[in-house]
Amino acid sequence: MTETTRTTAVSRRTLLKGTAGLAGLAAGSGAITGFPYVMSAEPKVLRYLGTAVNEGDDISKQCLKDTGIKIEYITATTDDVTKRVMTQPNSFDVLDTEYFSLKKLVPSGNILALDARKIKEFDNITPVFTKGETPGGKKIGNQGTAPWKVLYLEGKDSKTFSKTATEFVTLIPTVYNADTLGIRPDLIKRPISSWSELLNPEFKGKASILNIPSIGIMDAAMVVEATGKYKYADKGNMTKEEIDLTMKVMTEAKKAGQFRAFWKDFNESVNLMASGETVIQSMWSPAVTKVRSMGIACTFQPLKEGYRSWASGFCVSKGVSGAKLDWAYEFVNWFLSGYAGAYLNRQGYYSAVLSTAKAHMEPYEWAYWMEGKAAEKDIKAPDGSLLEKAGAVRDGGSYEDRMGAVACWNAVMDENDYMVRKWNEFIAA
Amino acid sequence: MDTSENILHQASPGLARGSDTARAAKAARLSPSFISWLQAGPMMLVFLAFFLIPLVFVVIVSFWDYNEYQLLPAFSGRGYTDTFEGCIAQLPDLCTIGKTYLKTLKLCFMVWAITLFIGFWVAYFLAFHVKSKTWQMGLSLLCTIPFWTSNVIRMIAWIPLLGRNGLVNSGLVKSRLIDQPVEWLLYSEFSVVLALVHLFTFFMVVPIFNSMIRIDKSLIEAAYDAGATGFQTLVNVVIPLAKPGIVIGSIFVITIVMGDFITIGVMGGQQIAAAGKIIETRLNALQFPAAAANAVILLAITFLIITMMSRIVDIRKEL
Questions:
Q1: C-alpha angle A145-A148-A153 in degrees, rounded to nearest 5
Q2: DSSP 8-state secondary structure symbol assigned to residue A199
Q3: For A348, which of A116, A244, B82, B218 is 20 to 30 Å away at the CA?
Q4: Which residues contact A358 (CB under 8 A, 6 or more apart)?
Q5: What residues of chain B, 188 to 247, have a C-beta less than 8 Å from chain A?
Q6: For all residues of chain A together, what is the average pLDDT?
Q7: What does the alpha-carbon distance between residue A222 and residue A196 come to, in Å, rounded to a whole number?
């Protein structure tokens, strides 16, 4: 850390020597602390379009400090990110999006694959992405749009995914997680072990799922399979009959009053759970953390059927070239170099390159977040607030246990259009 | 001059009779009609650029084809046929779009009736019971106070109040009026209507108040002198004269509620279908033509309701 401090001090002096015009530039860039790169003729700026998951002030500040690249965040929901890529591909440089969107993005020709040879840590990327297995060798569920199915393109401008490894990578992986149901253990008062509990009449009027069709239907499919009603060939790519069947089960539950509400964004899910309106629902890991940080018991419950996983990564807009493309590579390389990975790990997500993230984390943090061990010390969030007291164990255990138990991935189905129409019917029922 | 030339003249005076030099010269001296066109011009341009042209685009796009990731500019009725999928086969049961519109209309009607009732009496109080102009102004400004906060906040404020463990429920349980918390207070049609009424009653109050304030007080005195009861005066004098305000307020409320999907979503727990919600879902699935088709349908239905209302009252005449 001394090294960094010294750099900052030098740069501050450099800035003071600089002209008023340059000081103005620094002020305009929003970083008045002063970094050496403010002096360069052309400010290195990347417009970064993505969901809020990877975006954080700390990450952009550290990136500016380390590389001189200023990140301008453009934050949108997953759906809006996709819309923007389709309709305004020139409005961003770096794109941070989920693998399941690729089935729409790649054929549109609006994104550029990155060259794996220019990514320093590419060979260190977790085998979860490249081989579909955990570092310990556990095979990961293949259903849905699993990242390794859409990781490579056949050629630079190709619109078809390659089955074998090539140097053209659609998305350089950054962050991923395994999702499951969130529960209120204090209100349920008994162990929950299966997805089928979501439709258990015991929780009538106290259950919820998310109203984002492409993700909601995956949760619904996990439930249908758990109740033993049907076994899908691929939950992430259903036939029309399978969609009908899934929606029929859900519609019957809805008509019987099973659901209290559906949620669409992070805060809605937190409010439903924290206020006790629901006691069991689809949830995202940080939302569970949020409820817990409000002093309310909430568990991200591991279930015997496994997790529904998602993953996102970086690519660039088709309009990016020249120096800007070099910065984009520099930025992606920086992102995988550890600071950001550790930052994401500390939020309960997982980073794509484990070794570099580990180097940036304290051993006790790594043991808690990644190895499923009881926390030796209090666990703090990246902003310094207390997440867990010493002695706590992460829900679902270690990285191996959680990622090894992934059953399916968020997906865009071939019958997506039909599915969306059926989902509307479900909501209208 | 034949009829077609007449129409042409109305459409663009000063040009239509261009062949006639004398008349052209008259136009050059800026005839009154030319001046009025000039005055209306800027508004017309704005109307054209920001309403008519986009609307035409929406209608055009609604007839395009689409796939997962792009619009295909070829004529297709798919946006509409997908929307009405299974509507005939399912009869006598209603299909999704039918159910959705029925629900939206039902909510719309309830909100309209309640806001009209409350709005009418608030306006009545302001116009007839508050004597001083200053107080009238002050009180009607008071009505705008809720608008100083955002829609979303006013909406979300209901949630801790109405929830299962909310203020109302815990109050009722503690006072032993009920044993179990009441579930229908939140995430129900009740909460949707409540929030919409809360949000939009003001849009009724203002136009009705505006109409009522213009009613000549001597008419009411005359009715009183002629021996009319308070009720007769209300039905035969006040309501007919306040009609334009009632219709304008109704148009405000109906157009807003027909298109609303945020309030219905938040207060209905995302479980109640709304016409606007279908458009949003379509947009999120990148099915722009289908979204446009649904927008056209929504527009047509709203337009139909408003046409029916303006049949009852000729607003242009009344103003």
A1: 100
A2: G
A3: A116
A4: A342, A366, A370
A5: none
A6: 87
A7: 8
**What mean pLDDT is predicted for residues A323-336?**
95
Type of residue found at B250: S
C-alpha span between A70 and B258 (Å, rounded): 44
Q: How far apart are CA A275 and CA B161, in angstroms?
A: 11
H/E run at residue A386: strand A386-388
DSSP letters for A159-191: -SEESS--SEES-EEEEEEEEEEEE-HHHH-S-
Mutate to test the interface with A, among B103, B190, B263, B281 (most CBs of A within 10 A): B281
What is the Cα–Cα distance from B290 to B57, expressed in whole angstroms?
13
Average pLDDT along chain B: 85
CB distance B271–A427 less than 8 Å?
Answer: yes
Instruction: Using only the alpha carbons of chain A, give its radius of gyration.
Output: 22
For residues A321 and A113, give the distance between their C-alpha atoms in angstroms, rounded to a whole number: 12
Shortest distance between the Cα of A398 and any Cα of chain B, in A, equals 35
Q: Which of B164, B270, B278 sits opposite A277 (nearest CB)?
A: B164
Q: Which amino acid is at A200?
A: N
ipTM: 0.75
Q: Give the Cα separation of B155 and B12 in Å (integer).
A: 48
* pLDDT bucket at A201, cuts 50 / 70 / 90: very high
| CB contact (8 A) between residue B69 and residue A263 | no
**Residue A183 β-bridge partners:** A280, A299
